[in-house]
Write a structure and sequence with these properties.
The complex is a heterotrimer of chains A (about 160), B (about 725) and C (about 120). With about 160 residues, chain A is mainly beta. Chain A contains 4 helices and 10 strands; from the N terminus they run αβββββαβββαββα. In chain B, strand 18 and strand 19 form a beta hairpin. Chain B: Keywords: ATP-binding, Chemotaxis, Kinase, Nucleotide-binding, Phosphoprotein, Transferase, Two-component regulatory system.
């Protein structure tokens, strides 16, 4: 609605930036359903390290991923300071554990740079571009790559 | 608009086809009551009517043949013998295929189509066919006999119309005024009333009409358009339509009209006397079919009568007196949302109760009383909502009748399906997902279970095999049973196949039950042995998987020479379940009550070591293998030899017992089942999740898979034999 | 005021087709799923014209005709029967029972409206 009101922002997209393992990432604001404070989740037996478990979101059972572990970084020792970013993937809610949420940033699509080639293949796949914000590199997450299908959990 | 009406049509077709199958099944059972026959006729008729509206010619033509035969049955011109009933069944199956083709596109087997058309035609009286079928044909006759605007002529013509209604016309609700209005649409109309025939007041007869009208219509439209206006009153009036001095044309026109109408006035006199009711069908003679059946299978017939008849009769009586109950069509989505919301309400109640219990208040009795009321209401709502999803298994069973017919035809065997408990209500999803497993079991029953007619005769059995398909509610679950009177499982052969496929070692010693259960092993497919019917690369493992996914289990019982029984036991609803809330390595989990035979507190005396890492629990002198839930789920390292807090004695589907070791039991309660489908993939040992009173999610355990997982390595080695020996 | 049509047919498809056509043409449409319901609803709706199927459960089209015409009160209301049988004897039977006219299934919008016009005078 704000976007409509301010015509000059029309070609800008708003992103929410957050930190995962001390690195800055962001997601399009339209991809995010809500952001919740971390609460202990219910562990799924035999689940891989990046699947923390499941959480009750108003009666729905949703899986929670540890973004850090998913990106091949160290596993997060989740605490109340952390947040769960609830996103929609394939029309299903999914929770992503992040360290903390930073701010809402407005990005001109022209400012998005392609991800430079780096060694970590694993991380590369999950990043669809980078931008510079206050001299800091913010990585734009490719959500579909992070969670390709719900079936992959626990398999 | 038309699209959505067409959707309605196909939806309705589904219902009509079901009604038709139900009627045919009832007829086959010997119920040749007029209303039963009429209901089938009506179903076919309605399909035809709707199909006509959408120009589905092939469907219309076939339905018409079908209907014509049935009409003769209805009017007792044809006798319903077994041969005809079988033909009607096949025609019904084919009609169903035609509907599917019309809906989804595609082509029916035209050879089969022609064979059926021909077979039906043999029952249709030649004369009748010409009389009825011709005008009903798909082509030109479907266009209304005479429409205005059809073919406009170039020149304006003035017609003189003389119209004298007979008194009968007024009894049909026809009004001259409206007819004139319709005429005035065709062109310039002038009307004058002719009162010359009015007698004196004293001579007037009650209800007699003495009025005539002279009309003059100048129009571009042909004469047929004028005649069309008078279509409804033809024979109820004196009508002449003439152009200037055209007397012959008048005669022709009337003749043509009469011909189009098809009834001369003399004939019509007769027809008027037809009673308003439909002629009451003569009582149907005791059908020959029933006799034949009784002679052939006296034993089964009586058995069936005992089991089946009271229910069926009662249902039928109910249906007849009350008629179909009014129904409301609701999107399933809405119901499911409601079910979800009610589930939340119940969870909400437990949370409230917990909060109140934690309150530091001196007297909470009043609140608790109210809370009890809340709980009762919430449960009532839940039951009500669940009932919306529940549906009788009847349509499913009817589809199965077709499977058996087809399988019998394909294998050259003779098998008859007897269904019991069709009114049993089961959750809609369960019904949908049961179709495939049941189909498979039934095909197997015909293909492998029922013997060839010769073999059956040789062993003194009736040539036609019988398969009983039964549904019943049994203490909180639904039991669907398929019981054939065939040869029983060939255990020697099953064992050999399992050995050949490397599923069991050659020296494995298995009891009968274990051999039977080999059928459910993945990779055990009997495709190589027989026919292309049931062996389509899918084995009974598919059946087992489908049923397990629904939270149910499959049992086999078989007696050589007497037949086999497959029982599918399913939870009543997929939405709630009675569960035992336990803790496992610090996690709260739920175990389905239905799986638990007994619970007991652990103590040192109960534990017995067996070999390096096996432990057995002794219960009243017998020994049961122990399965530590925590380590099975990967939540704790190796099993210790310390006794667990609590043991839950569970029984697996093949009758083996196992003691699940958990830390503690908290509570026993109804839980709302939340599927993990789409949330995460298959989690070993877990069937679903639920939300507890504190809002936390708890896993619902699947004892069967926990036991299987923990013992799978040892299933068919020699240790197994020992543990079995000890356990039993 | 709109012309009120009460359509009695046990087929949802036919009812929907009638509704679509009649409402499009500006009639006020009412329906009943069988003869019994049709007769029961009749006095409440007080329709200007009745369209009824013949073959229906509970009470068939002839039953509808008999009940509506039987008491002599409704001898004026036009009743059109819907029939797939273009056979003459069906029409004759319907007329004998008091039917005003008939509509042959499958019908198109034009012939349906034309039939209504002839018995109610209503163009729509």
């Amino acid at each position: 609605m704000q976007l409509q009101a301010e015509a000059k922002h029309v070609d800008h997209s708003e992103f929410v930036s957050f930190t995962v393992a001390s690195q800055a990432f962001c997601l399009k604001i339209t991809q995010i359903r809500e952001i919740r404070r971390w609460q202990p989740v219910t562990v799924l037996p035999h689940a891989p390290a990046d699947v923390l478990g499941v959480m009750n979101l108003r009666g729905a059972v949703i899986p929670i991923y540890d973004l850090s572990a998913r990106f091949g970084l160290e596993q997060t020792d989740a605490s109340e300071r952390n947040v769960v970013i609830v996103v929609s993937v394939h029309d299903k809610p999914v929770g992503l554990l992040a360290e903390s949420v930073s701010e809402i940033i407005s990005i001109d699509p022209d400012d998005i740079q392609e991800t430079p080639q780096v060694d970590s293949r694993n991380t590369m796949d999950f990043i669809q571009g980078i931008i510079s914000q206050n001299d800091e590199m913010v990585r734009i997450i490719n959500l579909d790559a992070v969670i390709s299908s719900p079936e992959q959990v626990a398999q | 608009m038309t699209g959505s009406i067409m959707d309605t049509f196909f939806e309705e077709c589904e219902e009509l086809l079901e009604a038709m199958d139900a009627g045919l099944a009832a007829i086959e059972e010997g119920d040749q009551d007029a209303e039963t026959v009429n209901a089938v006729f009506r179903a076919v008729h309605s399909i035809k009517g709707g199909a006509g509206a959408f120009g589905l010619d092939e469907l219309v033509a076939f339905a018409h043949n079908f209907e014509t035969v049935f009409d003769d049955v209805r009017s007792n011109k044809l006798e319903l013998d077994e041969k005809l009933i079988q033909l009607l069944f096949r025609a019904s199956d084919h009609l169903s295929d035609l509907v599917t083709c019309a809906r989804d596109g595609g082509q029916v087997d035209s050879a089969h189509h022609d064979v059926l058309i021909k077979a039906l035609a043999e029952y249709i009286d030649e004369d009748e066919e010409e009389l009825v079928f011709e005008p009903m044909g798909v082509g030109a006759a479907f266009e209304p006999a005479a429409l205005p605007l059809l073919d406009a002529v170039e020149e304006e013509v003035t017609y003189d119309i003389r119209f004298h209604p007979l008194k009968e016309m007024y009894a049909t609700g026809n009004e001259p005024y409206f007819l004139f209005q319709a005429l005035s649409d065709l062109g310039e109309l002038s009307v004058s009333l002719d009162e010359n025939e009015l007698p004196g007041f004293d001579a007037m007869e009650d209800g007699e009409n003495y009025l005539s009208w002279e009309l003059s219509l100048t129009t571009l439209k042909p004469r047929s358009s004028i005649e069309a206006v008078f279509e409804f009153v033809e024979g109820l009036c004196e009508l002449s339509i003439t152009t200037d001095g055209d007397a012959e044309a008048e005669v022709d026109a009337l003749a043509a009209l009469n011909a189009a109408f098809g009834v001369g006035s003399a004939e019509e006199e007769n027809v008027v006397d037809v009673p308003l009711d439909q002629p009451a069908p003569e009582p149907v003679e005791a059908p020959a079919l029933a006799e034949v059946e009784t002679v052939e299978v006296p034993e089964v017939k009586s058995d069936q009568a005992a089991e089946n008849t009271p229910v069926a009769k009662k249902d039928a009586a109910k249906a007849k007196s009350a008629g179909p109950k009014p129904t409301l069509r609701v999107e399933l989505d809405r119901v499911d949302k409601l079910i979800n919301a009610v589930g939340e309400l119940i969870i909400n109640h437990s949370m409230l109760a917990q909060q109140i219990a934690n309150l530091d208040a001196s007297d909470t009795r009043d609140v608790e009383t109210e809370l009890e009321g809340f709980k009762t209401l919430a449960r009532d709502i839940q039951e009500g909502v669940m009932a919306i999803r529940a549906q009788p298994v009847k349509p499913l069973f009817q589809r199965m009748a077709r499977i058996v017919r087809e399988a019998s035809a394909a294998t050259g065997k003779s098998a008859k399906l007897v269904t019991v408990g069709e009114a049993t209500e089961v959750d809609k999803t369960v019904i949908e997902r049961l179709a495939d497993p049941l189909t498979h079991i039934l095909r197997n029953a015909v293909d492998h279970g029922i013997e060839t007619p010769e073999d059956r005769a040789a062993t003194g059995k009736d040539k036609a095999g019988e398969i009983h398909l039964t549904a019943a509610h049994r203490s909180g679950s639904v039991c669907i049973e398929v019981k054939d009177d065939g040869a029983g499982l060939n255990r020697k052969k099953i064992r050999q196949i399992a050995i050949d496929k490397g599923l069991i070692p050659e020296n494995a010693e298995l009891n009968d039950n274990e051999i039977d259960n080999l059928l459910f092993l993945p990779g055990f497919s009997t495709a190589s042995e027989i026919s292309n019917l049931s062996g389509r690369g899918v084995g009974m493992d598919v059946v087992k998987n489908a049923v397990t996914k629904l939270g149910g289990r499959v049992n086999i019982a078989s007696t050589p020479g007497r037949g086999s029984t497959f029982s599918i036991i399913l939870p009543l609803t997929l939405a709630v379940m009675d569960g035992m809330v336990v803790s496992v390595a610090g996690h709260t989990m739920v175990v389905p009550i239905t799986a638990i035979v007994e619970t007991m507190r652990g103590n040192d005396d109960m534990i017995n070591n067996l070999g390096a890492d096996g432990t057995l629990l002794s219960i009243r002198g017998s020994f049961v293998p122990i399965c530590d839930v925590a380590s099975s789920l990967g939540l704790r390292g190796d099993t210790t030899n310390e006794p667990a807090g609590v043991y839950l004695l569970v029984e697996t589907e093949n009758g083996d017992r196992c003691a699940l070791a958990v830390d503690d039991i908290h509570d026993q309660r109804q839980v709302v089942i939340k599927s993990l489908d789409g949330v995460c993939g298959n989690v070993p040992g877990v069937s679903a999740a639920t939300i507890l009173g504190d809002g936390k999610i708890a896993m619902i355990l699947d004892p069967e898979s926990i036991v299987t997982a923990s013992s799978s390595a040892a299933v068919f080695d020699t240790d197994r034999r020992m543990s079995n020996a000890i356990a039993s | 005021m709109k012309t009120k049509v009460l359509a009695i047919d046990d087929s949802r498809t036919i009812r929907n087709l009638l509704a679509a056509c009649l409402e499009e043409a500006g009639f006020e449409y009412f329906s009943a799923v069988d003869g019994r319901e049709g007769v029961d609803k009749y006095s409440d709706i007080d329709p200007d014209v009745v369209i009824t199927d013949i073959n229906m459960p509970n009470l068939d089209g002839f039953g509808v005709l008999e009940e509506l015409r039987g008491d002599g009160i409704n001898s004026k209301v036009p009743i059109l029967v819907l029939t797939t049988e273009s056979a003459a004897d069906m029409k004759a039977r319907a007329r004998a029972a008091g039917a005003t006219g008939w509509i042959t299934k499958p019908f198109d919008d034009e012939s349906l409206i034309f039939a209504l016009k002839r018995v109610t005078g209503a163009a729509a």
